[in-house]
UniProtKB/TrEMBL annotation:
It catalyses: O-phospho-L-serine + 2-oxoglutarate = 3-phosphooxypyruvate + L-glutamate; 4-(phosphooxy)-L-threonine + 2-oxoglutarate = (R)-3-hydroxy-2-oxo-4-phosphooxybutanoate + L-glutamate. Belongs to the class-V pyridoxal-phosphate-dependent aminotransferase family. SerC subfamily. It is found in: Cytoplasm. GO terms for cellular component: cytoplasm. Homodimer. It comes from the Bacteria. Gene3D superfamilies: Aspartate Aminotransferase, domain 1, Type I PLP-dependent aspartate aminotransferase-like (Major domain). It is an enzyme of class 2 (transferase). Pathway: Amino-acid biosynthesis; L-serine biosynthesis; L-serine from 3-phospho-D-glycerate: step 2/3; Cofactor biosynthesis; pyridoxine 5'-phosphate biosynthesis; pyridoxine 5'-phosphate from D-erythrose 4-phosphate: step 3/5. Binds 1 pyridoxal phosphate per subunit. This is Phosphoserine aminotransferase. GO terms for molecular function: O-phospho-L-serine:2-oxoglutarate aminotransferase activity; pyridoxal phosphate binding. Its EC number is 2.6.1.52.
Length: 363
């Protein structure tokens, strides 16, 4: 039991900026002087439409998204989009539905498996042999001539493996950006589609974001459910069904917060500083190790292991006593994982590093 906020290193749903939560709390009962909360108003009414438009405009500004891309606020999470993507894009392949996958962890594995229900999911490269601790060199990717697109995950949340540069490919690049959207500067023109769930770097679970180049719209398979047909959603302001209004409102508050922090470039500098603190601590320790190749270590999900695994429980329990929560690694890989998204203050990372040093001294 805590009577204060803790440092929450959860991978998602994840910590949100305190300022944003305070504003949301203050507006819960009476939003914009309407005498009602934002959750209680019509999604088609003027006040909510203004909130929606502003959130889209702020996201466009933060990520420098040109008009040639549509921004959709949908539901179904990244897992839902794993099905929507092949349904929307695979028909663009010239010899029958097909896409290339660069498998760098469990999320791209899942994406390929889901896509295989709709067409050929060709594994053009995989780092499975290294236990998903690396990214295959692009020169070794076996890309197909007849694939509609190339699918990557820009940051594998479980393994802590992140592309440091957006790969340039001839086909539209489709990227699952669930866990590193808005954490580093990208040139949107390098992507055909960006997609992800909001519950890591943006807001509450329930909102998913799709940014899609407009020329890729309008090719969906006839079986595509209406709500996952991106062209239809784009024509209808993402409102073919009732959108996740509270998630959109909260995402909008996070976008304003990001703008006040100096935007994505400023966040990127902070994320470099925060992740360096942790990796420096790991690299200079004889108790902790990172298994991920140095050239693709994630700035968002820092995974590490104790050389003596019998100390794992004591390490996690000791951290929790200090209010350093949710540092246990994903069950499929074990070890530890500190998720340090945009909203994790540097003070949280410093507190964790201090604790790691203290724990090691006590061993
Ligand atoms: C990179 C990545 N992709 C996909 C997912 C699944 O997202 P959702 O639960 O929103 O469908 C996650 C969730 O943790 C993730 O980290």
């Amino acid at each position: 039991m805590f009577d204060r906020r803790v440092f929450n290193f959860a991978p998602g749903p994840a910590t949100l900026p305190e300022e944003v939560l305070k504003q949301a709390a203050a507006e819960m009962l009476n939003w914009n002087g309407l005498g009602m909360g934002v959750m209680e108003v019509s999604h088609r009414g003027k006040p909510f439409m203004a909130c929606y438009e502003e959130a889209i405009a702020d996201l466009r500004e933060l990520m420098n998204i040109p008009d040639s891309y549509a921004v959709l606020f949908l539901q179904g999470g990244a897992i839902g989009e794993n099905a929507a993507i092949p349904m929307n894009l695979m028909p663009l392949a010239k010899n029958g539905p097909k896409a290339d996958f660069i498998v760098t962890g469990i999320w791209t594995e899942k994406s390929a498996k889901e896509a295989a229900k709709y067409g050929q999911a060709h594994i053009a490269a995989t780092s499975a042999a290294t236990g998903f601790n690396s990214i295959p060199d692009q020169k070794d990717w076996q890309l197909s001539d007849d694939a509609a697109y190339v699918h990557i995950c820009s940051n594998e949340t479980v393994g802590g493996v992140e592309f440091q540069n957006v790969p340039k490919v001839a086909k539209p690049l489709v990227a699952d950006v669930s866990s590193n959207i808005l954490s580093r500067v990208w040139d949107i023109n390098d992507f055909g589609v960006l997609f992800g769930g909001a519950q890591k770097n943006i807001g509450p679970a329930g909102l998913s974001i799709v940014v899609v180049r407009k020329d890729l719209l309008g090719h969906a398979m006839p079986i595509t459910p209406m709500v996952w047909d991106w062209a239809k959603q784009a024509e209808n302001d993402s409102m073919l069904n009732t959108p996740p209004t509270y998630g959109i409102y909260l995402a909008g508050l996070v976008f304003k917060w990001l703008k006040r922090q100096g935007g994505v470039a400023a966040m990127e500098q902070q994320n470099i500083a925060k992740s360096n603190l942790l990796y420096d601590c790991i690299d200079s320790s004889s108790l902790f190790t990172s298994k991920v190749d140095k050239n693709c270590r994630s700035r968002m999900n820092v995974t590490f292991y104790l050389n003596d695994e019998s100390l794992n429980d004591a390490f996690v329990e000791g951290a929790a006593k200090l209010g350093l929560m949710n540092i246990k690694g994903h069950k499929s890989v074990g070890g530890m994982r500190a998720s340090i998204y945009n909203a994790m203050p540097i003070a949280g990372v410093k507190a964790l590093v201090e604790y790691m040093k203290e724990f090691e001294r006590g061993c």
